Amino acid sequence: MNLGTRKILDNSFTAVGMGSIVVMALALLAVLTPIVYNGVGAVFFTGTIEHRTILYKEYGRGDAKTIETQTATAERYRGEAYRMLSDFEAEMEGMPFEASSRYRSQYAQVRAAMSSLLGPLPGDPTPMLTRFQYGQTRWEKAEEKLHEILYEKKWDYSDPTVMAKAFYVPRAEAFAGTMLAPLFGYLDRHLADMMQPEFTVYWGFFTDRSLDAHIFGGIWPEIQGTFFLAIGAMLFAFPLGVIAAVYFTEYAKEGFFTSILRSANSTLAGVPSIVFGLFGLAFFINTMKVSESKSVLAGSLTLAIMILPTIIRAAEEAILSVPKTYKEASLGLGSTKWNTIATVILPAALPGIITGGIISLGRAAGETAPIIFTAAVSVGSAIGIADVFSSPTPALSWNIYNLASEHEMACEIRHVQYGMVLSLVSIVLLLNLSAILLRAKISQKLKG
Amino acid sequence: MKRILLLLTVLLFASVDAGAVGGGVVIDGSTTVGPIAKSFAAYFKNRYGVGVTVSESGSGNGVKSLINGTCDIAAMSRAMKSREISAAATKGVNPIAHTIALDGIAIVVHPSNPVASLTRAQIAAIYEGRITSWAGVGGPNVRIVLVQRESNSGTQGSFGELVMGKGVRITRSAETHASNGAVKNRVSSTPGAIGFLGLGFVDGSVKVLAVNGVRPSLPAIRNGSYPVSRPLYMYTNGQPAGLVKQFIDFAGTAEGMRIVGELGFIAQ
Amino acid sequence: MTEEVKSDGKRSNAFVVSPQKRKMQKLAKNAGEALLLGIASFVAIIVLFIFYFVAVDAIPYFQLRGFTEFFTSTGWYPAGEPGEFGALAIIYGSAMVTLGSALLAVPMGIAAAVCLSDILPFSVRQYAKPVIEMLAAIPSVAFGFFALVILAPLLQSNGGPLLMWTWWVLAAPFLLLAVIVAADLLSARFAQEENRKKMALLLQSLFGILAVLVLYVVGTKLNAIEIITGTNALNVSIILSFMALPTIVSVAEDALQSVGRELREGSYALGATRAETLLKTVLPAASSGILAAVILGIMRALGETMVVWMASGNSSHIPDPWFNYLEAVRTLTATIAGDMGEADQVTGSARYHVLFAMGLLLLVISFFSNLVSERIVVRQRKILSGQ
Known about the structure:
heterotrimer; A: mainly alpha; MetI-like fold; two-stranded antiparallel ribbon; 18 helices; elongated; C: mainly alpha; 2 strands; about 80% helix
């Protein structure tokens, strides 16, 4: 092979390596960008008057005066639209049956879309479900609904041997010549007046309970559940892990028994997370009966054994990285071994140990599979700290799955799902970032 | 470091304040009955301040929880099997059924699909894997994508019983989804798809097929002319009392029936 | 003066210990060490417990139904009357997505590890590492959400063009390289010294046309593919490869770094380029460690639940044809997560226990893979350090 070719090969080899790293960075970017972009939309968005009304009525927040004046303005514009509806209804009454039945089903669609846009129409009974008691809370959804009112989506089924194509027909055409005809132009012109859109920053998304199965409100119960589970897991795993690490580094004599223990540790680290869930169900709930059924306690215990190997490994590394001279100096001064460990080695290794702990905390917060059978429920109120021994809890990780693939209105509440994913990812990544920074600090310190 | 610990402590205690009632009524079971249970739960929370926990883990899981005594009410989209009842008896649990609503199982396809009606035999043949293209039932030559539910679903069980019949199995290549909502999403995003779901979940994003020429509607289900319908149950251990009784009875009140109706089910 | 005496006295107190007290101290020390040992063996006890409790609930299944059906039948009708519990298609699905993710992640992971350990300067490496750590830290459910909500619709609506572009981007540079190398090798072998350049040019243009033809034909074929369902084995394989990458990279990088500088310098001294040094000297020397990295990465993909549950489509069949990654599949982990809802725990039927049997299968596989990878790493360390 000539030199030129070898050089090209060498360069392309470098390019493949760099390319792989770039692909990884792109993968990270591709996953994070939509999550961050859409997730931020759960908190920062253009909210309508309906959003402010819900906040005021259900959570007691907001300025009553402003909401009142805005509602009054909105109602004035809405009143005009409602008047057109009732005029048309009266007109339909007067029509012969054949003529009116031509409009009936179309009109029912218009009414349904209107009440979904604006909330229950005057004369309708107040719906029982919160989701039907209010109109659209987000401006972009309101615009979608408007489109639904203005245009009818139709499918061309004329040829049964091909899949139909969708086309839109302006409803104004269908109602041409009736008293409803001006409604469509009116809605189009005055949507903003009726909905009073305003740029909204809804911090309550993180601190409010959810309303009507997450259709309105925030995700506090899930955030809290995630913290309970993760911190609970740490309470069990952290002390155990650190003590085990001390044993491995300071006391264990190399031999068959120790190598078995080490193997056990790496085996535990490799157990698939769903198997932890099975074990948690079979052992903690069915055998030990730590709680009657799913509970935060059972979930925390399951997560604890899952993160234990990580903590042990991190603590071992931290202890081993403490300079030998520290230990020798302490022992040389006549301190006992145990005393040396407690007062010299552990404090020096603490930052490293805590780094491992923080990473494990993030892992515990993000895991789903171990808590499916042991701790998670789809809907529930935030639980008190006294209930952790007996109550299951909603948690971010589980509810992301639940809302995205089991919720009856999964497509309509994408913003909540994104908000949840963003919250979970930020919790986990912030924990990891702080661990990375902490580690950088330590290595700087060790370098001197 | 200390700051982080402090922050965590603060968070922990902040959550103590936010803690609300965790007890109250516990419901477990069907995802089909889920919306009813969740809406009743929201109503009870608002009205009486009673916390109601709803887990939607499938009808089968509901039975399990009821027998284990870990839930007060098992929400089910099918009747309890005799095996389950005898298992309950050995544990001293006496399950009593309360019908809370009627539900039709809608057979849905993508709105672009020109097929508007199928016979029960055709649906069975499609799900058995004997018809694999829509051309086989007079539609376009597009591969049929079968969408079914997880095996623990009551809807799946009812569909098997009411449409497939005894001993006939759904083909293995059918995709499995965890809930009615997931089936709806799947069908509404896939032109060749066919799926089945509780009538309450149907909206404009999917096209409902008539079965044997009958479209699922309130009167058609009430009078039984729509062939794929079933009652929805809530099971309790023995005759309910107290809060649980109040909860079960709520389905029969005017307000309860209105909630059921608004959700798209048929009140009793 | 007085102070010194005082402190002296104290010190002597500390050193002169009565035999009784010494005995007590020794006892306390032994008790303490025993306690430490107890806590350290806790992990081993947990591992035993996991095996025991999963097995205890798995064995009744095999007692009820035997082994044959589970491993050889593809009929998975757990709710049927009578039920069928053939897990072959599900095991196959697990294997398929694991293999798919390995095909994507292993070459990329090794290339990235080589890049990190030998090519990038330290300053750049510092920024690349956190990227890998963040990729490792993202919760699996977030990946699952991405796969279900973003990647699946994208594959379904634009699958063909997407495949075509990926093919172009990946294959074009490699084909170009292959053309250059092939032309060079052939001309070196068959042409005389003075004709070599001409011959190489001729071959290059000949192979070049061929390569463009291949690129174009395959590209159009891919472009014409219509992906019927976006939740399929391909989708899951892509996402799982993202998740396996960090493990592979970090373990492989450790293995590469443990290969000493001497080996590299020796190779350079013999006139090898960096690529040749790495490919012919360093990678073979680190091969066992890299194998361990691959095993660990594969285990990460095999054991993952949420992504496959949300985005694999969950249909328990062997795709037709068997390598069709564009069809929905079902995996062991997703089956455990999704099927656990059934009641038969109480009635003790095969339905409940079969899921534990699947868990046991996963557990056994992960146990042996770990054992193997651990042995490999230990052996390599011994060879490299002690020789």
